[in-house]
Design goal:
38% of the residues lie in helices and 21% in strands. It has 375 residues and is an alpha/beta fold. α5 (139-153) packs across α8. The structure holds NADP nicotinamide-adenine-dinucleotide phosphate.
Length: 375
């Protein structure tokens, strides 16, 4: 088996990083790494986890001399870190491969957005042309592409609108905790009335709503109530009525597919909801040809091994096409495949995927495998 010589991993303690390290262990990826160096911005010098071929003490993630000895760096540390370290490291003449979960470098001409089940040929071509920056895509975009892979492959997509229902883990570990705290506070606040059999549900509702609108609720880094609520704005304001998250749907998808010169129009409305790990999305898709639902289902199902089509009926949908059913699994659940009543070339689809797996960690893990094959 081919090997990666010296791999540095920054951000392995974080949410995406720990899911990635877990997947690397599950899949035996460390067998093809000759030496792994785990870095930290806050715990350098302390003992790290005991792993095969791994230095026992954590290295300093800000030490450019140390980073410059690596053949490959994986960063799941966040955009601020990339901003601080990447350019000075390249300026020192470092020629290694930079794999990153953060969005900082994604749209650079010198970066490839990686989602190899869809764009392995682009990845390999760019590698052959000497590219060295391979960046994971936005979670929602990667999950959409995995779900609709077959339709893109068959060139069936004219345009898409995406309505997203995005999990709080996309906001980081702290926001997951805050959501739970909000849920607990709401329950605690309603408990006296809940215990009274004769209490009116409208009294409970108004008590909760008053609490959610008061300063007493813990909003923390989420900034707003999310429990019993939803937040139709994710990422920064582009000052044109759209959020940066919505912009990514069109921009990143077309870059991943290598269609920047002939883009597929994609419009998104991105919404944060109170789920933990899974992003759900409802698509309306204009097809380039009037293909029947059975054929569309086959095309979607056969595109890759992770798509799992859920039969379009009430029981299967409620059982299997939900964040609760999909959380922690590599499956990309796809269902509610149907044509609209107003135009048989316009279809709808609903999909659910774990945004920490295919949405973040898995494309990076698989890129390391592609690099190992080459070295
Ligand atoms: P995170 O959980 O906040 O972790 C980032 C770093 O925070 C860790 O590597 C660790 O670095 C430090 N840290 C401080 N206290 C910690 C604690 N108690 N437990 C664990 N780590 C702690 O970040 P993330 O959500 O994984 O996101 C990392 C990057 O991936 C971001 O750029 C993000 O945009 C991108 N991304 C995230 C998602 C997602 O679902 N969250 C999806 C796609 C892409 P030190 O060891 O150096 O202290």
């Amino acid at each position: 088996m081919k090997k990666v010589k010296r791999l540095g991993f920054v951000g392995w303690r974080g949410m995406v990083g720990s899911v990635l390290l877990g997947r690397m262990q599950e899949e035996g990826d460390l067998d093809y790494v000759e030496e792994l160096v785990l870095y930290s911005t806050s715990q350098a010098g302390q003992p790290g986890p005991e792993l095969a071929n791994t230095q026992p003490l954590l290295a300093d993630a800000m030490d450019l001399d140390s980073l410059s000895t690596l053949d490959v760096i994986i960063s799941c540390q966040g955009g601020d870190y990339t901003q601080k370290v990447y350019a000075p490291l390249r300026d020192m003449g470092w020629q290694g491969y930079w794999l990153d979960a953060a969005s900082t470098l994604r749209m650079n001409n010198s970066s490839t957005i990686i989602l190899d089940p869809l764009n392995q040929s682009i990845i390999k071509e760019n590698l052959a042309n000497g590219q060295r920056d391979f960046i994971g895509g936005n979670c929602t975009v990667s999950l959409m592409l995995m779900a609709l892979h077959g339709l893109f492959k068959e060139n069936l997509v004219e345009w898409i609108t995406a309505m997203t229902y995005q999990a709080i883990s996309g906001g980081g570990a702290q926001q997951m905790r805050e959501l739970l705290i909000q849920m607990g506070e709401i329950h605690e606040h309603a408990t006296p009335l809940l215990r009274l059999q004769e209490s009116s549900i409208l009294d409970i509702d108004s008590r909760i709503n008053e609490y959610l609108n008061s300063d007493a609720l813990t909003t923390g880094t989420i900034g707003y109530p999310l429990a019993n609520n939803l937040l139709p704005w994710i990422d920064i304001d582009l000052d044109n009525g759209t959020s940066r998250e919505e912009w990514k749907g069109h921009a990143e998808t077309n870059k991943i597919l290598g269609r920047e010169d002939n883009p597929i129009p994609i419009e998104s409305t991105c919404v944060r909801v109170g789920t933990f790990r899974c992003h759900s999305q409802a698509f309306t898709i204009a097809l380039s040809q009037d293909v029947g639902v059975d054929d569309l289902t086959d095309i979607i199902e056969q595109a890759n091994q992770w798509v799992k089509v859920i039969p379009n009926n009430r029981q299967n949908t409620l059982q299997s096409l939900t964040p609760v059913a999909v959380s922690g699994s590599m499956d990309i659940a796809v269902g509610k495949i149907r044509k609209t009543a107003f135009n048989s070339k316009i279809m709808t689809i609903f999909t659910v995927g774990d945004q920490l797996l295919w949405g973040a960690a898995e494309p990076l893990r698989r890129m390391l495998g592609i690099l190992a094959e080459r070295s």
